[in-house]
Every structure is written in structure tokens, then in C-alpha cells.
Design goal:
Elements lengths: L5 E6 L3 H11 L5 E7 L2 H11 L3 E4 L8 H11 L4 E6 L4 H10 L3 E4 L4 H12 L4 E2 L1 H10 L11 H11 L4 H8 L3 H15 L4 H10 L8
Parallel strand pairs: 1-2, 1-3, 3-4, 4-5, 5-6
Helix pairs in contact: 2-3, 3-4, 7-9, 7-10, 8-9, 9-10
């Protein structure tokens, strides 16, 4: 889908934050803000209606918090990627967001250019973590107790995914179609019992498939 803008949904209970995000994201013609939610329940409802590619999800919101909303969205709409965008860097929130299926965890002091790049990368299937969050996650993630056996091809896909490659790059490296990569990723998540590529990538490190440096 060349030239097709990435559809973004903003979920934050502070209107001034949503306005600020809308203002500078709108400067990028590759991004289209399709809606704004002021709480988690609204985010879930709007995700169903608008089918965005990426949701920027605040974690601390009324009615339904961002972690609960992310869990609901990832279970029902696994093609939608969620980036937690928050001002808090607490272990509980970092672990909760990633367990819920967020592909990324960024802090609200992230530079505008960096955030735009992160949205595009997430839409392409690349894990996006603030360095501080990544360090905390590595301490917490454990290999699944008894994961289903991955096929050799799924293992290859998982290794490349964990190295930060997008679906298109994995497809190119392995000489397969992008849709096939998506199917493999879906099977990998199911077999590992996780909801996001981020969790899968961290498991790949724990399983010794890739090094922490990658």
C-alpha cells in the first residue's frame, strides 16, 4: 500500500495532549489522525469502528485504563498495533502494557520526530521501546513454561523480528511474501502464548535466539 497514510487513533484523557499530538503528527503526510478517545472504553469502541493502524495509548485514564483497553483491543483486533505513550516509568506499568500486547512503550518526553518515526515503525511491525523500558523488561520476561515447538521457518522469522526488522524486511530476507510473514508472526504469538511482537522478541532473547545487543 504505497502512498496510503497510516491511520492513527489518539487515546489520552487530557485534551491539550491530544491537541498537541494532533498538531505535530498532522505535519507528516504519511500519518492520518482518524480519531481521539478520552478514556480506555472510548478507545476500544473507536478501535472497532475506525480500524486504525496504530493507537497511541495513555495508560492512566478514567473509566478504563490504557492497559485494560490495550488487552481488549489486541485480543479482538490483533492487526492494530498499540504504542503506550505515558509519563510514567514504573515496572508495573511497563510490564503491564507489554503483557497486554503493546508493541511499544514510549515516554511523553519523546521528541516529535522520534514519535513520528516510531509510529511508522510500529505500523510496519517493528518493536518500539524507550531504552529505560527495555532494560526493565529484560529483567521481567521469562521463557514460556512449555511453548509449542516452533517450525524452523517460524524460528527464522522470530530471530529477524527480534532483531528489529519490519515485516517487509523479513519477507525480503527470507524470500517470502509479506502476508506469509504476518501468518508466521501470528502463529509464533499463539505458540508462545503472548499478545505482542515485543513479548515475542524478548522471549527470543531469553531463548538464546538473539543476543541482548541486537
Amino acid at each position: 500500500m504505497p502512498n496510503q497514510a497510516i491511520k492513527v487513533l489518539l487515546a489520552d484523557d487530557h485534551s491539550v495532549v491530544r491537541q498537541g499530538l494532533r498538531m505535530f503528527l498532522a505535519l507528516d503526510e504519511d500519518l492520518e489522525i482518524v480519531g481521539e478517545a478520552s478514556n480506555g472504553a472510548e478507545a476500544v469502541k473507536m478501535a472497532r469502528e475506525l480500524q486504525p493502524d496504530v493507537i497511541l495509548m495513555d495508560l492512566l485514564m478514567p473509566e478504563m485504563d490504557g492497559i485494560t483497553a490495550t488487552t481488549a483491543i489486541r485480543r479482538e483486533l490483533p492487526d492494530i498495533e498499540v504504542i503506550a505513550l505515558t509519563s510514567v516509568l514504573e515496572d508495573e506499568k511497563v510490564f503491564g502494557a507489554i503483557r497486554a500486547g503493546a508493541i511499544g512503550y514510549l515516554l511523553k518526553d519523546t521528541e516529535a520526530d522520534e514519535l513520528r518515526r516510531a509510529i511508522k515503525a510500529a505500523a510496519a511491525g517493528q518493536v518500539q521501546l524507550a531504552p529505560q523500558a527495555a532494560a526493565r523488561l529484560m529483567r521481567e520476561v521469562r521463557p514460556p513454561d512449555s511453548p509449542e515447538e516452533l517450525t524452523p521457518r517460524e524460528t527464522e522469522v522470530l530471530q529477524l523480528l527480534a532483531q528489529g526488522l519490519a515485516n517487509k524486511e523479513i519477507a525480503r530476507d527470507l524470500g517470502i511474501g509479506e502476508k506469509t510473514v504476518k501468518t508466521h508472526v501470528s502463529n509464533i504469538l499463539s505458540k508462545l502464548g503472548v499478545l505482542s511482537r515485543t513479548q515475542a522478541a524478548l522471549h527470543a532473547v531469553r531463548m538464546g535466539l538473539v543476543s541482548v545487543d541486537t
